[in-house]
Amino acid sequence: MARAFNFSAGPAGLPEAVLRQARDELLEWGDERASVMELSHRGKAFMQMAAQAEQDLRDLLAIPDGYQVLFLQGGATQHFSQIPMNLALPGQSADYVVTGTWSQKAMQEGRFFVQAHQAVSAEADGYRTIPAQAQWQLREDAAFVHIASNETIHGLEFRDAPDTGAVPLVADMSSNILSRPIEVSRYGVIYAGAQKNIGPAGLVILIVREDLLARSAGRLPRIFDYAAHAEQRSLLNTPPTFAWYLAGLVFQWLKSEGGLEAMARHNDRKAAELYAAIDGSGGYYSNAIDPSVRSRMNVPFSLHDAALDALFLQESHEVGLLALKGHRLLGGMRASIYNAMPLEGVRALTAFMQDFARRHG
Ligand code: PMP
To answer: How many whole angstroms separate alpha carbon 176 and alpha carbon 346?
Structure first.
C-alpha cells in the first residue's frame, strides 16, 4: 500500500523526501559507519550537523544577530512554565492573550511562576475570532505578553505580530512556525514543539533575544535555565539527537523548496482551496471562524449532520485521507495542512468532500 495523505494535527506528516533520506542514512550516516542515533552529541560529526541545522534555521527565518537559537526538550507544554520561570522575576506579572485552548493552557501553566493576567479572552464567543488589540488590557510593567500565533484546535491564526511596545512578545508558534516569513525582531521569544512543521516529537526550538537571558541569572537549576543552554549551545546535557538531525533535514528541504516565501504561497493556496470547498458546499460543511483570522494550518469543519461523522471518517480513511477526526473538545473534522502536505493532498480531500456530499446529500 502507498503512503496516504496524513491530515494529523501532530505528530504530523513529514516531507517524503526527508523520510527517504533518513531511511537511506539510517544505518550509516555520512562517513561515520554508524547511525546518527548512535553517536556522541559531543563528537565532531554531530556538532557540525547541529551547527549547520541552526544556521539553516537562521537563514530560513532571517534571525538577526542578538538572538540565540536553542534546541530543547519538554514539549511546548514544559515551556509554558519554563518561560515565566526564566523571564519573570518573583512577584512580577505577565499578560496573556487568550484566543483558544493553547494560549489558555499557557496561562494556566504559567501561573506557577508568574502572576498571569488575562489581557483578553475570546472564550465567551467560542474562540471564533481574535479580539482587536484595542480591546486588550496590556500593562506596561508586564514581564512579557504571551500569544499563541496559531491555535491548533480552534483553527485561528494571527496574521501579524501585535505591537507590544517595550514589553517582550512571547509567541507559541508550535503549529505555524516556518509556514511563512516572519519578522523575528518583533518577538522576545518564539518557541515551538517540533512535531508539526519541524520534525519528530521530542524537540522544541526556542529563539530568544539575548538581553532576556540575563533575567534568569543564577536563579534556576541549569537544566531549566535558558541562559545555561545558550552558553552550552544546547549541549548542556544530551539533546534529542535524532530529532535534531531530522529537523536539519527538514530545514534543508525547506531551502530546496524555495524557503519561506515559497512555503507561504504554497500554504495560502492550499488553505484557500480547502476553505472555498467548505464555504461553497451550500451549508453541507461549515467553518465558523472569522475569515480574517482563519488558520492556514488547521482547518476545523463540521458536517451539517453530525450523524454522518463516523461514515465520513471511515470512507475518507478508506481512500487514503488519514486523521481527519476533529479534536475531542470540538468534535467534527479537522484537516491539518502543514508545510509537508502537498497541494494534491488538499485536492484529494476537497474532491472526496464533494463526492461525499453528493452521495449522502
Ligand atoms: N502549543 C500548541 C499551539 C500546540 O498545538 C501544542 C500541541 N498540539 C502544544 C502547545 C503542546 O505541545 P506539546 O505536546 O509538544 O507539549
So the answer is: 17
Q: Is 21 left (phi over 0), alpha (psi -120 to 50) or beta?
A: alpha
> Which of 102, 198, 205 should be mutated for ligand 1, with most atoms under 8 A from CB?
102
Ligand 1: distance of its center to the CA of 174 in Å? 6
What is the pLDDT, as a whole number, of residue 288? Answer: 95
Measured CA to CA, the distance from residue 278 to residue 319 in angstroms comes to: 19
Q: Is the CB of 193 under 6 A from ligand 1?
A: yes
Cis ω for the linkage preceding 84 (within 30 of 0): no
Q: What share of the chain is helix, strand, coil (3-state, %, to 5)?
A: 40, 15, 40
Show which residues are catalytic. 102, 172, 196
Question: Over the stretch 169-189, which tens digit does the pLDDT of each residue have?
Answer: 999 999 999 999 999 999 999
For the segment 215-268, what is each residue's pLDDT rounded down to a tens digit?
998 899 999 999 999 999 999 999 999 999 999 999 999 999 999 999 999 999
Q: Is the CB of 100 under 6 A from ligand 1?
A: no
Q: Transcribe 261-324 into DSSP letters.
A: HHHHHHHHHHHHHHHHHHHTTTTSEE--S-GGGB-SSEEEEEESSGGGHHHHHHHHHHTTEE--
C-alpha 328 – ligand 1 centre gap (Å): 15
**What residue has cell string 472564550?**
123
**What is the 208 CA–ligand 1 centroid distance (Å)?**
19
Residue 1 in this model has a pLDDT that exceeds 80: no
Amino acid letter, residue 229:
H
The residue type of 158 is F
User: Does ligand 1 lie within 6 Å of residue 208's CB atom?
Assistant: no
The length of the chain, given as a count of residues: 361
pTM of the model: 0.98
> Ligand 1 in contact with 332 (CB < 6 A)?
no
Q: What are the two backbone dihedrals, phi and then psi, of residue 206, each rounded to the nearest 5 degrees? A: -130, 125
- 172's enclosing H/E stretch is strand 169-172
Are 209 and 83 a contacting pair, CB within 8 Å? no
Task: Name the maximum alpha-carbon separation found in the chain.
Answer: 65
- Nearest ligand 1 atom, CA 150: 3
